[in-house]
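Translate structure to sequence.
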């Protein structure tokens, strides 16, 4: 008796009809049976510019070339093995049925640890280094929690997530950090759902309430005007690491609490007609700040080292740091050094509060509030997306005002 020929073919391709949030296109496995194509996501992506159409792999210029090619070859092999198995067993399936079987195979092969790595690699490729680092820290914590035992998404249950949360508390991890880890892990789960790796109704976080984390009051890190003056009066030798640290701190304070990462990225082209014009890295918001005289004096000191308008203002970054990762690593390293020096400066100035670059931002906001400036104006000055964020900076001040006002009822 005549048996039908299976005649199914597979091919890896860049699915340019769809564009992902990172600006790249998904890499798909195309199955053709009876001239009907079906597509299965390989949970990989690449830009059109870095894709080799002849070889159907990323070009060798791609920073993750070896990693992606290895994954493609592995998944092609798994798909071919499945199809050969079906042919051997004389199982006749449509392209849609083959797609479902292959998709199930792909899903079942994805482990949580490996998916973490894939997400991190995608973020790094998109130059979202800070966000990638958060996923790295979350992955590291989960790997440690699991004693390095990988698992599939189906193994992540609500009770496992609760145990993961409790694991943090047993190690005295601050609730703010626990919130970041859990929120990031939930984002990973949501990404897996979007990519069809897990069921659409899959929700291991159903027993986790994030409300308690939103009620957390962060310790306030503002200092007084008198303490700012004490910092300015310290006799620090120009050109030293201590002097630079003080300049970064004061420049932030006099420039609406500009963050250290934004200070590091400032170039002379950001100074236009006595105004500081820059895009805030965190929110991508464009800010225009009128430079105060003390800030101008700090800039005047560094101007003697200026090469051209494209050079960095402060000696934190230089032209040798080109990639997003090298820039991020350099800023991280410098931030630790600067905060260590600020701790020294605070001690010399007799300040009890631990001095960090972030104290300048909190101090700016708090002193503005004490001067009678509305929260809405302070929020705009800080570049916050909402006044709720600004209020976090100001809660301790509000409590002090209320406490003092309450004394008026005393007889």
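Result:
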């Amino acid at each position: 008796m005549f048996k039908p020929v299976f005649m199914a073919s597979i091919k890896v391709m860049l699915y340019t009809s769809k564009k992902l949030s990172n600006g790249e296109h998904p890499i798909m496995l195309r199955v053709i049976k009876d001239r009907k194509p079906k597509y299965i996501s390989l949970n990989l992506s690449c830009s059109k510019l870095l894709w080799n159409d002849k070889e159907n792999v990323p070009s060798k210029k791609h920073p993750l070339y070896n990693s992606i090619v290895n994954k493609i070859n592995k998944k092609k092999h798994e798909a071919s093995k499945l199809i050969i198995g079906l042919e051997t067993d004389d199982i006749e399936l449509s392209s849609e049925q083959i797609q479902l079987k292959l998709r199930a195979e792909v899903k079942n092969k994805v482990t949580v640890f490996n998916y973490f790595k894939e997400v991190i690699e995608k973020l790094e490729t998109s130059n979202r280094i800070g966000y990638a680092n958060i996923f790295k820290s979350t992955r590291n914590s989960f790997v440690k929690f699991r004693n390095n035992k990988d698992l599939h998404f189906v193994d992540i249950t609500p009770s496992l997530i609760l145990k993961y949360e409790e694991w943090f508390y047993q190690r005295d991890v601050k609730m703010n950090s626990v919130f970041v880890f859990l929120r990031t892990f939930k984002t990973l789960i949501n990404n897996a759902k979007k990519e069809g790796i897990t069921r659409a109704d899959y929700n291991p976080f159903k027993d986790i309430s994030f409300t308690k984390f939103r009620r957390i009051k962060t310790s306030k890190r503002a200092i007084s005007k008198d303490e700012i003056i004490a910092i300015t009066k310290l006799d620090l030798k120009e050109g030293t690491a201590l002097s630079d640290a003080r300049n970064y701190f004061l420049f932030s304070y006099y420039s609406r609490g500009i963050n250290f990462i934004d200070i590091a990225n400032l170039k002379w082209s950001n100074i236009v007609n006595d105004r500081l014009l820059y895009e805030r890295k965190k929110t991508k918001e464009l800010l225009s700040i009128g430079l105060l005289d003390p800030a101008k004096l700090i800039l005047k000191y560094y101007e003697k080292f200026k090469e051209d308008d494209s050079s960095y203002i402060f000696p934190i970054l230089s032209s040798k740091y080109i990639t997003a990762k090298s820039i991020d690593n350099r800023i991280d390293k410098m931030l630790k050094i600067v905060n260590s020096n600020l701790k020294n400066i605070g001690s010399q100035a007799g300040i009890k509060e631990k001095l960090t670059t972030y104290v300048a931002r909190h101090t700016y906001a708090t002193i503005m509030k004490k001067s009678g400036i509305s929260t809405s104006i302070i929020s705009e000055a800080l570049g916050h997306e909402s006044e709720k964020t600004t209020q976090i900076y100001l809660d301790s001040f509000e409590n002090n005002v209320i406490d003092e006002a309450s004394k008026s009822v005393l007889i």
